[in-house]
């Protein structure tokens, strides 16, 4: 029902209860002005680029002029990547997922966040990837806090000397080999004994943990690249809460090999210089453990 025009300043309208009410023009104007004052327009600037080459877990993009090394980027189909190689007119991004739907011409945006993972008590008893995303099919992990994947280690002054032993439960080892809390220890096993082989090997190890009841206080990080850093970040979350922690790495040479292959795909220098960088990458992981 259209309102009846009474004069230039008043209108007759029908209210919700069916009664006719008179609304003055100044009331309409005041109501509009009040709405305008309450309106808040949020302008969000997003750095967006375009994919011009993708393959072998590497995407080359251009247009992300303000992206930084180690920053997380998000592709339009949801895959997350880490920007590692920045050149004058393009950048190389390592895909942290399958990225099967990423094509040439797809858009990608910078998140403004350096590589970080969510951390919480809910990570216990879970199997996650390098970005702390669950891969065990048991739902999402709720976390209200995050930590940088490559967070700086405490300085020498803030560290304490090793004075408390770590008891692993095997009397023969506890009596013969002293392992202190905060100490790094090399464990040499049989060939092909490392966890980072294939999904079935990880599933077998997780099954053993569950049968022995150890999975209740264990987090399994299953990923070839960046997994040691992710594990260290999770351990530091509990460490700074004065919880006893123990982190076990599998064969770190596989991490160096993955870094070498990734560097070759990113067209970084090969040869002896790259080999030194690969092993430096592996040994810096030990520096993060406490």
UniProtKB/TrEMBL annotation:
Pfam family for this entry, one: ATP-synt_ab_N
Which Gene Ontology molecular function entries are recorded, alphabetically? ADP binding; ATP binding; proton-transporting ATP synthase activity, rotational mechanism
* CDD domains linked to this entry: ATP-synt_F1_alpha_N
Which InterPro entries has this protein been placed in? ATP_synth_asu-like_sf, ATP_synth_F1_asu, ATPase_F1/V1/A1_a/bsu_N, ATPase_F1/V1/A1_a/bsu_N_sf, ATPase_F1/V1/A1_a/bsu_nucl-bd, P-loop_NTPase
- Residue intervals of the ATPase F1/V1/A1 complex alpha/beta subunit N-terminal domain: 47-112
What are the ATPase F1/V1/A1 complex alpha/beta subunit nucleotide-binding domain coordinates in residue numbering?
Answer: 193-271
What SUPFAM superfamilies does the annotation carry?
A: N-terminal domain of alpha and beta subunits of F1 ATP synthase, P-loop containing nucleoside triphosphate hydrolases
Q: Which UniProt keywords apply?
A: ATP synthesis, ATP-binding, CF(1), Hydrogen ion transport, Ion transport, Membrane, Nucleotide-binding, Transport
Cellular component terms (Gene Ontology): proton-transporting ATP synthase complex
Which PANTHER family does this entry report, sorted A to Z? Answer: ATP SYNTHASE SUBUNIT ALPHA, MITOCHONDRIAL (PTHR48082)
What family is reported? Answer: Belongs to the ATPase alpha/beta chains family.
Protein name as catalogued: ATPase F1/V1/A1 complex alpha/beta subunit N-terminal domain-containing protein
Query: What is the protein's species of origin?
Result: Carnegiea gigantea
């Amino acid at each position: 029902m259209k309102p009846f025009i009474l004069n230039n300043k008043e209108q007759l309208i029908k209210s919700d209860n069916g009664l006719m009410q008179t609304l003055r023009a100044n009331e309409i104007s005041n109501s509009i002005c009040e709405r305008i004052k309450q309106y808040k327009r949020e302008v969000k600037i997003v750095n967006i680029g375009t994919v011009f080459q993708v393959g072998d877990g590497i995407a080359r993009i251009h247009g992300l002029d303000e992206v930084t090394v180690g920053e997380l980027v998000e592709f339009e189909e949801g895959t997350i990547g880490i920007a590692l190689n920045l050149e004058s007119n393009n950048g190389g991004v390592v895909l942290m997922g399958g990225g099967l739907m990423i094509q040439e011409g797809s858009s990608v945006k910078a998140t403004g966040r350096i590589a970080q993972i969510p951390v919480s008590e809910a990570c216990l008893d879970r199997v996650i990837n390098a970005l702390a995303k669950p891969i065990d099919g048991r739902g999402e992990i709720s976390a209200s806090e995050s930590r940088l994947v490559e967070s700086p280690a405490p300085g020498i002054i803030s560290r304490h000397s090793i004075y408390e032993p770590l008891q692993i439960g095997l009397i023969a080892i506890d009596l013969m080999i002293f392992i202190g809390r905060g100490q790094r220890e090399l464990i040499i096993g049989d060939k092909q004994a490392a966890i980072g082989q294939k999904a079935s090997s990880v599933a077998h190890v997780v099954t053993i943990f569950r049968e022995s009841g150890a999975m209740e206080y264990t987090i399994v990080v299953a990923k070839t690249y960046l997994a040691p850093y992710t594990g260290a970040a999770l351990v530091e979350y509990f460490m700074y809460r004065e919880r006893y922690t123990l982190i076990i790495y599998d064969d770190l040479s596989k991490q160096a090999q993955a870094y070498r292959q990734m560097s070759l795909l990113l067209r970084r220098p090969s040869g002896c210089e790259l080999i030194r960088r690969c092993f430096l990458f592996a040994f810096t992981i030990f520096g993060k453990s406490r």
